[in-house]
Each structure stands twice: as C-alpha cells, then as structure tokens.
Design brief:
The protein has 283 residues and is α/β, with parallel strands linked by helices. It has a single domain, classed as Alpha-Beta Barrel (TIM Barrel). Helices cover 29% and strands 15% of the residues. It has an eight-stranded parallel β-barrel, surrounded by six helices.
Length: 283
C-alpha cells in the first residue's frame, strides 16, 4: 500500500480566504485538507486565539498587541475585510468565502483555539490539527499549559497510537517542546526550523520530538537532509509548500506532510480529489 502525503492547510485555505478566520478553515475542510494548522497566542484575559503576528495590524482593521488585549477587545475588530474581495475562486456551493463582504460576521471575527477545536471534533470526517505555539511571549509556559488543558478537555491530548500525529504541537522553541513533553508525554511535537542547527544536521531531533519541521527552502537546498531524518527514524512536515515544483519535490523525497496555503490545488496535484465532507459550522 503506497504512502499518502498528508496535506495540511496553513492557517486554513489562506491563499483564498483571510488567514486564521473560521471561513478559512471551513474552506480548507471543503477543499479536502487532511489537517488544519494554526498559530496560538494568549490574550490578556487568558484566551488562546489564532493569530500569527504579535500585533493585529496586518490581519485586522485594528491595531495593537495581542498579549495586552482581552478577547472582548479583539472581538471589536474585523479579521476578514482587510483582504481585497474577488481575488480567489468561490467555494463549491454556498457563499463565496473568498469575498469578505459576503462572509458572515462570525466567520470574520478573531478565532479562538477552543472554537477551532469544536470545528475539528464536529467534522463528519476526521481532521487533524497542528498547533504552533508562538514565542517569545510575556506569558511563557502558560501558553503550553493552556493549550494542553484545552486538548484534554476535548479528549485530544493522548494519541491513539505511537505513530498517531492527528493532533500535534509545533514550535521553533525547543523549550516549548520540552514543556509539552512534560505536560502531555505522548503528544507529538514538531521541531520547526528555518535553518537546521549544526547539532541536528545528522537527522537527529531534540529530545522528545520525532517530527522535523523544516522550511521548503531547507528541503530545496539540502534534499539529503530528508533522507537523514528518515534514516534516524524521524518524520518530516514541511512548510510552506505552495509551488507545484516544490510539491513534486516533497512527494519525490517522501515527506510525510506538506503544509500549504493552497490545500485544494496541492491535493489535485497529488492525484487526490477533494475529500471534504459536511461540517457543522455553527453551534
């Protein structure tokens, strides 16, 4: 039986729909993505929200630093209208989720990790989730503590088998991964890299991590690194893979997961039709 490369929607189908919005994740599921990816930051009142940047200026109609804002503060801003309408294809059936003007207000507001987890468990087909903890942060270990606490509440903090990476925590911070290892020993962690540290160039990974998360630049420039990780018993989840030639390279090298802003086209290139199924979007 041939191996299937997992396709992970980076911040949702973010090439088509404003990143990290509920609309972007609904589109990703509709596109057939195997898993979703998100970044998490902690608000001043202790909520985990899916926002990549330290500030909300780029991705909303407001400004400010996430860590000093409350969830109520963030809810005052629109996280969908910043993208120009009409730049992407509509979803099959239903509203055009590429057009911020027609996206329901609830689909454009800041997204909490709790709401995203509800979407994952409510899906009528199995969906994975890759959660990236953003560091440095003024809240330190509290980010990992709150993340694992939420996963426990949803029954997702314990993998079903040794190779089960349906739910995984990713970070560029080795300290973050050590914290996750202490809080939830079985939960897979992905060591993200924009360059490979000298001590790990032999394909080894930090203690407790079995998945390497190199950038596509690393894979493109050093394809033998993929072989070294595999020889050391590890797996690779590569980011952010949008170019068809890079998709082909990852498939040829046998990486386990492709993290992409364009899950639909990537699935099509891999010869997989969109497997999106119904999902209960509103509760």
């Amino acid at each position: 039986m041939s191996r299937v490369t997992e396709v992970v929607a980076h911040r949702g189908s973010s090439a088509d729909v404003p990143e990290h919005t509920l609309a972007a994740y609904l589109r990703a599921i509709d596109d057939g993505a195997d898993a979703l990816e998100c970044d998490v930051r902690l608000t001043a009142d202790g909520h985990l929200v899916c926002v990549h940047d330290r500030r909300i200026d780029r991705t909303s109609d407001g400004s400010g630093v996430v860590s000093v804002m409350t969830l109520e503060d963030l809810h005052r801003h629109d996280f969908g209208r910043w993208r120009d309408a009409g730049t992407s294809r509509p979803t099959s059936g239903g509203p055009d989720l590429s057009d911020p003007v027609v996206i329901d207000e609830d689909l454009r507001r800041v997204l909490t990790l709790e709401r995203l987890l509800e979407l994952v468990v409510d899906s009528e087909r199995e969906i994975g989730l890759a959660i990236e903890t953003k560091h440095p942060t003024r809240y330190g270990a509290l980010v990992e503590e709150r993340t694992v606490e939420l996963l426990r509440r949803f029954g997702l903090a314990r993998p079903r088998s040794e190779r089960d990476s349906r739910i995984r925590i990713m970070s560029f911070s080795q300290l973050s991964m050590r914290r996750v290892r202490q809080l939830a020993p079985g939960l897979p962690t992905v060591f993200l890299m924009d360059r490979v540290p000298l001590r790990f160039r032999d394909g080894s990974l930090p203690f407790g991590s079995a998945i390497a998360g190199p950038s596509i630049d690393i894979v493109r420039e050093h394809p033998r690194y993929v072989q070294r990780v595999h020889e050391a018993g590890g797996r690779l989840h590569v980011w952010t893979v949008d170019n068809p030639s890079d998709v082909a390279l990852c498939e040829r090298l046998g990486v386990e997961a492709i993290i992409t802003n364009r899950p639909g086209p990537v699935l099509a290139q891999l010869g997989r039709t969109g497997s999106g199924g119904p999902v209960r979007a509103h509760r």
